[in-house]
Amino acid sequence: MKERVGKIFSKMEEECDAIVLMNGQEPMLDASFYYACGLDSGLFEECTAILLPDNGATLITSQLEESAAKNSSAEIITYSTQKERDDAIKDVLKNSSKIGVNSRGITYSSIQHLMKIINDVKFIDAGNALIKARMIKDANEIEKIRSACKIASAVADRIPEVLSYGKTEYEMAAEIGYNMQKMGASSTSFDTIAAFGKSAAEPHHLPENYKLQKSDMGLFDFGCRISRYCSDITRTFAPIESSELFKKVYETVLNAQSLAIENIKPGICSADIDKVARDHIDSIAEFKGRMIHSLGHGLGLDVHDGGSFSPRSQIILEENMVMTVEPGIYIPGWGGVRIEDDVLVTKNGCELLTHAKKELDEVRIF
Q1: Confidence (pLDDT) at 25
Q2: CA distances for 108 relative to 23, 103, 126, 189, angstroms
Q3: Is the peptide bond before 27 cis (omega within 30 degrees of 0)?
């Protein structure tokens, strides 16, 4: 925990006396709260973590989470009423005149309440520092992500065993989530995307009661959590009755992903990785402009954990960043193909963390 707190302060552009992380009520929970305190269990609604420049931290927790709080090496203060919580916050911050808050993770009501109970202080934004610190994973984080990726990959490889003509998108989404938890995941990383046929042209399609037809491709985007850390994988399966167009789209997307992964290494600008994949897709006239999203995003405590591969992103890749690589081609009225894997940036390149089959002859609906 001390190393993480120290890393957060080292990323601050402006010095401050303390950083306050305030959880709201679910779903308005701040992943940076759990990151800084090293917590992988407990909800900690309306609890507060206060980080100090000497790498120390105080966790002000409700009695409800007292047991889970003991897993943190932070100093623990337990409260039973809101007044007790507020008094504890004021006491820990009594010598602070400049306080950082996470604008990306704090609710408006929480910041208003904090400003009400603490007077004569200057609040500054610590959001960018928190994101930058979280983007570089430590060994413990990498191991959790690796475990989540292993489960997601295994479930992806089992999809042909449970996918059949007449099965609905609802059923497939449920089976994917069930199988991940059966293998040890605590939950899904996000709502599973199961899209058949024309619906695969919608990147964020929500499952419906539509039944798989013989001419439909099947696109599945899903992931799971291990100790709060996420995996994220997409596989698109060839229709029972495949077409030359599907084969061309699929091979184009697969080649774009391979080219991008080959270029990932420390020191490279993230926008340049997006450009490699996007240029390959756009080089084929009929697919030009059909990749309608960024190539990928950071992965960690959040499924979008800071940083991205996009034309606008100017992040310089560093060792131990974890990113997704997910090119896609989408054709309204026909369908789409997306292939997504998770990678760890290493000293000299990158390591593939997801290992599900993805060659065209391996991803067929039987």
Answers
A1: 87
A2: 11, 9, 15, 25
A3: yes
Among 141, 181, 170, 191, which Cα is nearest to 27's?
191
Residue 207, pLDDT score: 97
Sequence-separated (6 or more) residues with CB below 8 Å from residue 353: 145, 146, 149, 231, 322, 341, 342, 343, 344
Q: CA-CA distance, 237 to 229, in Å (whole number)?
A: 27
**CB-based contacts of 63-71 (< 8 A; 24+ apart in sequence):** 67/42, 68/39, 68/41, 68/42, 68/44, 69/39, 69/42, 69/44, 71/38, 71/39, 71/40, 71/41, 71/42
User: Whose CA is closest to 60, among 44, 38, 73, 71?
Assistant: 44
Residues of the chain below pLDDT 70: 366
Query: Residue 217's Cα: distance from chain center in Å?
Result: 26
Specify whether the CB–CB gap between 342 and 299 falls below 8 A: yes
3-state secondary structure of 70: coil
Q: How many CA atoms lie within 13 A of 279 on its CB side?
A: 9
> Hey, which residues does 225 pair with through a beta bridge?
187, 230
Distance CA 232, CA 305 (A): 12
- Which amino acid would we find at residue 117? I
Residue 108 structure tokens: 């408006």
Residue 194's closest CA among 177, 212, 169?
Answer: 169
d(CA 150, CA 45): 30
Distance CA(340)–CA(233), nearest Å, equals 5
Question: In angstroms, rounded to a whole number, what is the distance separating the alpha carbons of residues 221 and 339?
Answer: 9
Q: What gap in Å lies between CA 172 and CA 168, rounded to an integer?
A: 6
Query: Partners of 298 in the beta sheet?
Result: 323
Domains of the chain: 2-135 (3.40.350.10), 139-362 (3.90.230.10)
